[in-house]
Amino acid sequence: MAKFKSEELLSALSQDVNRIKEAGAFFNSADKNKVAYIPEKGQWSVVQVLEHLNAYNRHYLPLIEKELAVVTYDTNAWFASGYWGEKFTRMMKPKNVFEVTNKMKTNKKMSFPNSLNVDTVLKEFLAGQDKLQQLLEQAKGKDLAKIHIPITLTKLIKLRLGDTLRFLIAHEQRHMIQARNTLKTVGVATDKFPVILEAGKQ
Is 194 inside any structural domain? Predict the structure, then answer.
């Protein structure tokens, strides 16, 4: 399994979230009609992608916040990923910044109709990134392997906090690339879109 210096991992994840927040600001400045436009049948609009990410944040962020609020003196300078955490993160992580090549089927409860208020969805998404940054800060000094968070599909599988954060952010990176490509398809210039994924970063 992968092993990280805890402080370096949290710092790298924080940088990733900064890029995702910049992407959210890009979507916020784009033509709202194009943000809500579905290019082809069976595809998602950008606003549907963002609502999908909001749904994940509604699950994970309160659970992480609750666990971090528990007083504990457990610390560890190193974090070793668990089997499921490493597997899920590697499955979710984009392989490059240009496209999502490893397609996955989405759980129905995490898929949303296109009748969404774009401003409301964007506001929640950006607030979610701020909360995620706060939680990354709160996680400093904690033992990232001692706290466990249940995944969305079942409470029977729990990931170590370090893996939960890695997975959640990899999931956002994946869908930021998808959303950018959707905007490009509907005629929005994306040359100023932030680079979501560091080259060669795993």
Answer: no
Dihedral angle, C-alpha 156, 161, 167, 169, nearest 10 °: 140
The 10 Å Cβ neighbour count of residue 200 is: 5
Q: Is the pTM of this model over 0.70?
A: yes
Print burial letters for 15-26: b (CB count within 10 Å at least 16), e (below 16): ebbebbbbbbeb
Biggest CA–CA distance in the chain, Å, is 52
- CATH code, domain with 148: 1.20.120.450
What domain range is 94 assigned to? 3-185
Tens-of-pLDDT digits for all 202 residues of the chain? Answer: 789 999 999 999 999 999 999 999 999 999 999 999 988 888 899 999 999 999 999 999 999 999 999 877 788 999 999 999 999 999 999 888 887 777 767 766 676 777 889 999 999 999 999 999 999 999 999 999 999 999 988 888 899 999 999 999 999 999 999 999 999 998 889 988 998 877 544 4
200 within domain boundaries:
no
